[in-house]
Amino acid sequence: MAATASEAQSGQIPLTYPRRAAVVSWIFFDWAAQPYFTLITTFVFAPYFASFVASDPASGQALWGFATAAAGLMIALLSPVLGAVADASGRRKPWIAGFGVLLVIGSSLMWFGKPGDPSVIPPLLLAYAIASVGVEFATVFNNAMMPTLVPPDRIGRLSGTGWATGYVGGIISLVIVLGFLAASPETGRTLFGLAPLFGLDPVTHQGDRITGPLTGIWFIIFVTPMFLFTPDYPARRPIGEAVREGLRGIKRTLGELPKQRNIATFLLANMIYTDGLVSLFAFGGIYAAGTFGWRTIQIGTFGILLAIAGTFGAWLGGKLDDRLGPKRVIAGSLLILLLALAAILLVGKDSILFVPVAPPAPGGALFSGAAERAYLVLGCLIGAAGGPLQAASRSLLIRLAPRDRIAQYFGLFALTGKVTSFIGPLLIGAITAVTASQKAGMAMLVLFFAAGLALLMRVREG
Predict the structure, then answer these.
(1) Residues 6+ apart with CB under 8 A from 28
(2) Which of 207, 69, 74, 67 is nearest to 123 (CA)?
């Protein structure tokens, strides 16, 4: 498992790779961070905000989209610069720790988002933006540690295993919330038929709001092994000198990028399809809440099923990545996402592909309507494709980027994932606001996946 001497001399790759405990501890970063995406941005807090904090689901979806766009723009502008500084300074862990603090603070403040109180909306969206910046920047520097952990021919498996582990963490956190914390306001009982722990009040949706502090505590606990057992890059320069060198480095890299047509095409493709994927995950729960009237328990159960599908998808995608190459895994995932999204747009509360079906009976069993079950199946397809799409994308970047500037390129990777990330939410928010139709807003995402796939076909994997 030794690296080449030239890589070792660059100061970026060690002569030998670390023990399994270091790799497993690094993988647990995905486990630590995933509840933010599962609980807050997708299945619990975002739908709660749209349905009970905002005046109505459509305006709630619009406001959430504008906040997501603002955070994405900040991430896009700063990611390459910070990545270049990290390459110059050498170390990654201090950056992960600093941005992890933002994640913990921002997510914990979401507890104060009481229902029906318009005054909490601005500070609540600000807290969401702070947490989003924290988790995304921490992820940039965590990704940049990958080349030092395993040989190049195992990068795909490492990336896929990380995503799969993250999905499992998201599932467990969601089960905890649905089974023990979040109760239906009508029955006062959780999904497991229990009274909420800690006396959480269902009427004021404390079970939904507790997802913020839970996300912060979860991150602190499960990111700790990475700090204890995973070796960091060696320090190379003092921070002041690193900032100056990093700025020069990112200027040089950006100047070279037009000549690097292959990696530039991939980054452009990633920019487009990642915007679509992030928007799809961010608004999938909100869309279900508006279409079917789902509450926390229904959306959360849907989230568990989707995350289970994503776990198997990411695990299988990692194996296919090493066997077939990341480009094929990305292309297959995009095709599945295109078909599933197109089908979802043809599913209504009482129709499937324009065929009328019986709506769910009031007070009936969970997901008793045929249209609801169709949405579940299509959502699981999206989950199964989303994991390998993201895992194979960071794997492909590692295969294309220079080893001595890996954090810079992960900064550019985050840039391309975020520089237009405000466009998807902004378009969804604007079109939803203008048409008062959630379906019209979501329909825009088909264009993102199709355009990303077309550009990906022009990337050479070697």
Answers:
(1) 165, 222, 223, 225, 226
(2) 67
Query: How far, in Å, are 58, 344, 347 from residue 350 at the CA level?
Result: 20, 13, 8
Report d(CA 106, CA 220) in Å as an integer: 13
What pLDDT score was predicted for residue 1?
35
Chain CA centroid to CA 399, Å:
22
Measured CA to CA, the distance from residue 281 to residue 156 in angstroms comes to 23
Q: What is the DSSP string of 360-385?
A: PPTT-STT-SHHHHHHHHHHHHHHHH
Q: What's the pLDDT at 99?
A: 94
**DSSP single-letter state for residue 356:** E
What's at 288, amino acid-wise?
A
Distance CA 95, CA 86 (A): 8
Q: Which residue, 277, 295, 291, 131, is CA-closest to 214?
A: 131
Owner of token pair 């582990």: 165
Q: pLDDT value at position 11?
A: 43
Closest CA to 96 of 139, 127, 128: 139
355 phi and psi angles, rounded to 5 deg: -95, 120
Amino acid at 248: R
* Cβ count near 363 (within 10 Å): 7
Q: Give pLDDT, residue 96.
A: 93
pTM (2 decimals)? 0.73
The predicted pLDDT at position 5 comes to 33
Residues of the chain with pLDDT under 50: 1-14
Alpha-carbon distance 394 to 329, whole Å?
12
If one counts every other C-beta atom within 10 angstroms of the C-beta of residue 362, the result is 6
Q: Which residues contact 260 (CB under 8 A, 6 or more apart)?
A: none
As a residue count, the chain comes to 462
| Residue 321 structure tokens | 């990545």
29 in Cβ contact with 223 (< 8 Å): yes
Q: What is the DSSP letter of 12?
A: S
Residue pLDDT, tens place only, 77-106? 777 777 777 766 667 898 899 999 999 999
Euclidean distance between CA atoms 35 and 31, whole angstroms: 8
- Position 9 scores a pLDDT of 39
pLDDT at residue 364, as a whole number: 59
Contacts of 127 (CB under 8 A, 6+ apart): 105, 106, 107, 109, 110, 212
**Cβ(7)–Cβ(151) below 8 Å:** no
CA 440 to chain centre: 23
